[in-house]
Amino acid sequence: MCGIVGYIGHRDACSIIIKGLKRLEYRGYDSAGIALYDGKGIYVSKIKGKVNDLEEKIASDKNTNGSIGIGHTRWATHGVPNDINSHPHYSNSRNLVIIHNGIIENYAAIKQELINRGYTFHSDTDTEVLVNLIEDVQKSGSYMLGKAVQIALNQVVGAYAIAVLDIKKPNEIVAARLGSPLAVGVGKDEFFIASDASPFIEYTSNAIYLEDEEMAIIRQHKEPRFRKIKTDLLFTPYVQKLKLNIEEIEKRGYEHFMLKEIFEQPQAIKDTYRGRLLVHNGLVKMSGIEDNLEKFLNAQKITIVACGTSWHAGLVAEYIFENLARIPVEVEYASEFRYRNPIVTNKDVVIAISQSGETADTLAAIKLAKENGAFVFGVCNVVGSSISREAHAGAYTHAGPEIGVASTKAFTTQISLLAMMALRLAKAKGTLSTSDFKRSLVALETIPSKIEIALKSDGLVKEIAENYKDATNFLYLGRGFNFPVALEGALKLKEISYIHAEGYPAAEMKHGPIALIDENMPIVVIATKYGHYEKIVSNVQEIKSRKGKIIGIVTEGDTQVKALADHVIEIPETSEFLSPLLTTIPLQLLSYHIAVLLEKNVDQPRNLAKSVTVE
Ligand code: M6R
Known about the structure:
By secondary structure, this protein is α/β, with parallel strands linked by helices. 36% of the residues lie in helices and 22% in strands.
């Protein structure tokens, strides 16, 4: 969490950093701050609130000139969001300023040592401890900034992406990474650093992604130097050509990124399929699978690790893999898996699913799985992300940048990709007949156009949202492949509208949640044609007789649920295993419209951040 940006070159650093911070606000938006070197001194300004608040605060300042600077947008970990805890932080001498994304776990012990040596602290942050540790190292051996940062980082435990400025050597930014992402943009006589490439994409498409325990010393008018923090080795990094374009990270006329991303799903799924779903050849081809087919086929079991929405995609995949390929699958919260001493061996395949590819718990789960000898396959969206590099092999979803904190197109592209994987394995194992396999490929191919149709329910969903926007609780029910969709629908509503919602397998309702049902309770029931339809109709009747308000998600042409429900939203017919790709669309729209009607900040809901790079 937290976004960091830095610039060193010949342009106005302030405007580049402010624009860059706005693009990184998905990573946190509790406070924002900037440090600029104007040729004379380092100017620092910071404020609780959004980057817009910072921009307003510095608008009339005269000392925001200069072409070197760093900036930060915060998701609070240590210390409440306020002006003092905002970054950048000064060292005691005010010679150093730092911005930091991550957590220094042993900060309390270091802080105590520094206090014993006479240092004072103004904030509650671990970051202020780190900058003073660097200063202390500098003083103890008259070290240059780069060396002092390196020595200090070898003493800390935790995660960081940092950038440090030193008033004594102002034409230099020292940046380093462990556990939190950091990219260096390489332009013509100018350099950028950022948590991802979006702040510099219009200036350069050349990027270096620092690996864990690597640092960069970026200097004005000179080549940067790259060093391994532990071994002190200088190295030449790989410069990646970025394919990201500026249009992809802008709203393009939509009121919110979330809405844009919901409507992008047909194209995003086509991009996931590209080169892989070869219907005319009757093939699914994915190099990550082809190269490791034996590992999948010989796997004792597949364990899926993920968090949040990605975990819900993993649950859908469990149903798909077990049904189609008959491989046993377990789905685990990465945060539980990493600490519960799981049984995982070299006979297992672990699939890690993550949109950002930076989720700390998922990354830790991968490391544990690797230590136990398992083969790890990553399903990520962000190219070059930590998880995609840590996994033995993997496949990108190619959904394009997802900026809204509430995940939408990441979910459907993850399911699409996992469904292709399951089909490829089913073919190899012979668990599907040739005709069923071919039918499934065609069904997959038609999903994007069916999502286009499902999106046409937008107006109707908005009307339904008007009816229920003031409800204080919602239930979401689904069965089989659509049980995880019920969980996902509830999560979407909770995170952006702050309305309490629970997802349940429909049959579990009578084991408890039914007690909640009265005339004030809206219940979203996923009741598509295939998959225990008659049983769901019975559940709907049970709700009806307790006066609950029923919003049914049904297959086109449905009559039974229509006769019972207060509202129905139709989706096109598809194969049962692919129905989550369609049933989730009205649920995304419902949460979106309710949040808009309640005037919530849809793209940046309170307390959340897009990528959770801390435990
Ligand atoms: O980047 P990841 O897919 O690893 O992120 C996992 C969760 O943090 C994420 O899905 C989160 O639950 C979303 N806000 C849900 O909309």
